[in-house]
Structures are given as structure tokens and as C-alpha cells.
């Protein structure tokens, strides 16, 4: 009797195991479909990623993500290099709708998703002499900000626009969301963040007469 129950039990276990094995054949990874752009967020209409005008200094850049690194250098305790995947994994992500205003008179309102520059800086540990944060890009473009602008605001480096990864022409892998600043401060294709003590540093357009602060509520051609 005990033997018989044991046999039935044994058979049931084998059957249950077989059933489990079958159900386990369902793929665990979600199938990736082409991203669809979000055009409205919390009641607010968003611009399309195609509403931008592309007039970057050297045209759209194609960054090969397989050997891409984002480095943080200069006046920091721990210089660091990150892959795209590490940034997306290791840093808390944030979403925010912010409007980019170009000096040429157009603007685009977009849902940005990315990480906070100040979280990256906290990890790197700026030295006390660090006054300025200089951003460098794949096309040789640069722009800079006082360290207080980065540390005292929630400034994002974005990797998604309207719910989809940045397109190559929109700055893939990373664009700075320099809120309250003119469009030329929104550096695309960021490769390096350098902490510096050079308070007179001027980026690409800033060297050519554009305001160094780049504040939206002020003239973009001034003598600061
Ligand atoms: N690396 C890089 N970033 C850049 C530029 C550039 O030429 N190179 N142009 C800037 C200017 S002038 C503007 S208005 C915004 C516009 O972004 P868009 O070219 O995606 O429209 O990107 C900014 N970021
Ligand atoms: Mo611009």
C-alpha cells in the first residue's frame, strides 16, 4: 500500500516536473518592438523629435556604443569612465518635461529621461578648487557652467526623448538638458565631463561671442 502511494506520488512528481519544463519554454526576455514616440505627457503637448532643426557644427554624429565611454576627469578625487550600460544601470533615472530654445528662434518641448549630473559628480568627488564644469562632445564641441548651476539644480543628462532612446542626430547617447539656458548650452554626444578651476573658460559658441552664462532670460549676445 505504502509502496503504491509512493509510486503514484513519484509519477505525479515526474508529471509535474515535465509540465514545468514545458511552461519554462516560454521566453523570459520581452520581445523589443520599435519605440513609439510619446506626444502628450500629463496633459501637456510635446514636440516631435523630428521638430528639431539640425545645424550642429559638424552635422549629426554616429557614436559607436560598443566602444563608447563617458569619462569624468580634471579636478576630482576619483576620475572615472562609464559605459552606456553602466550609466543606465547604476544611476537613478528621472523624467522631466523641459523646453529647448535655440537662439535662431525655434523651440521644442520634450519629455526627457536621464540621470542627474550631480549624482555623477558626487561619485567623482570634486576637489575644493573646482569652479567650472566643462562638457566635451564627440564632434569637438564644448560648453561650460559654474559648478553651482550643476550642484544646486536637478540638471539631467538625457538618454531618452519622448520615451525612446535619443536618435543619432539628437545627440545619442547623451544630451545635456540645460534648463533655463539657451540651446547652445544643451551639448549633444557628450563624451567627457571635466572639472576645472578656469573661470574664464568659454565653449565653442561662447568663444564666438555668445553669452557664457547662456541664461534664457538674458540676451544671448553680451559681454559676460
Ligand atoms: N555636440 C554638439 N552639441 C550641440 C550643438 C553642436 O553643434 N554640437 N549645437 C547646439 C545648439 S546651437 C542647439 S540649438 C541644440 C539643438 O539641438 P538639435 O541640433 O538636436 O536641434 O544643440 C546644441 N548642442
Ligand atoms: Mo542653437
Give a structural overview.
With 224 residues, the protein is of the alpha+beta class. It has one domain: Oxidoreductase, molybdopterin-binding domain (Sulfite Oxidase, Chain A, domain 2). The protein contains four helices and twelve strands. The strands form three sheets. The chain has a five-stranded mixed sheet. Strand 9 and strand 10 form a beta hairpin. The longest helix has 22 residues. 28% of the residues are buried. Bound molecules: the ligand Nc1nc2c(c(=O)[nH]1)N[C@H]1C(S)=C(S)[C@@H](COP(=O)(O)O)O[C@H]1N2 and molybdenum atom. The site of ligand MTE has 16 residues, from loops. The site of molybdenum atom (MO) has 5 residues, from loops.
CATH superfamily assignment? Answer: Oxidoreductase, molybdopterin-binding domain
Q: Figure out the total of helices.
A: 4
Describe the biggest sheet? 5 strands, mixed
Number of E strands? 12
Would you list the SSEs in sequence order as H and E? HEEEEHEEHEEHEEEE
* Ligand list: ligand MTE, molybdenum atom
The share of residues in helices is 10-25%
Q: Strand order of the main beta sheet, please?
A: 4-3-12-7-8
Which blocks of ≥5 consecutive residues have pLDDT under 50?
none
User: Shape from CA axes?
Assistant: globular
For the terminal residues, how far apart are their CA atoms?
Answer: 95 Å
User: What is the fold named in CATH at topology level?
Assistant: Sulfite Oxidase, Chain A, domain 2
Task: Quickly name the level 1 CATH class.
Answer: Alpha Beta
Radius of gyration: 24 Å
Tell me what the CATH architecture is.
Alpha-Beta Complex
Arithmetic mean of pLDDT: 90
**Structural domain tally:** 1
* SS-based class: alpha+beta
What percent strand?
A: 25-35%
